[in-house]
Amino acid sequence: MSDPAGHAAARTVTVTGFGTAEAAPDLLTLSVGVECRRDSAGDAYAAAGEASAAVTGALRSRGVPGRDIRTSGLNVRADVVWQEGRGQQVTGYVASSMLSVRLRDLAAGPGVIAAAVEAGGNDVRLDGVQLGFADAGAVMALAREAAWADARAAAAQLAGLAAAELGEVVSVRQHPVPSSPVPVGGMQRAFAADTMAVESGESGVSTSVTVEWGLLSGR
């Protein structure tokens, strides 16, 4: 269809580029679960509170400040089983909560984890360990530059194939890619044991950018 104003339609090319930057992490985040089963809801709730307080006390004694310890997911539920002829029967009550703990001294991580597990005993689960950055801005900037370079290289190739050249940037959109946690395999219910090593290695930050360029007639 012709343009009623007599103008040729502007030609553009839109490309999504991907970039990742890696650096040594400086933040370790623990997910520590507390789960207590008792005959009554009140006893389960009290036991969970005691176990959580013991874990928190152990963390504080190891130098973890209060601002880096957060409690979430407090829950009390009935533990039920199905019995033939009687239907669902309550066999007890379960109280649970989750502690999210940020450790800024990675070298102290194994000792802190061991202390928390020992303090909580059999009522504690270590649900996950995630390595990351206290301030990911600098690493994200490098990932963003890599994504931009990837997008521009692809756009330049496409422009060349279309016998054109890249013009000015029309629009830019960034799409952060969330990082995945580093799991601690095989630990569902924690117990006091030898200290487990946590190797930090390097962690990556990823992002993508979608960039639209105008196309100029090739010379």
UniProtKB/TrEMBL annotation:
Domain of life, per lineage: Bacteria
Gene3D superfamilies named among the record's database cross-references: Protein of unknown function (DUF541), domain 1, Protein of unknown function (DUF541), domain 2
GO biological process: DNA damage response
Name listed for the protein in its UniProt record: DUF541 domain-containing protein
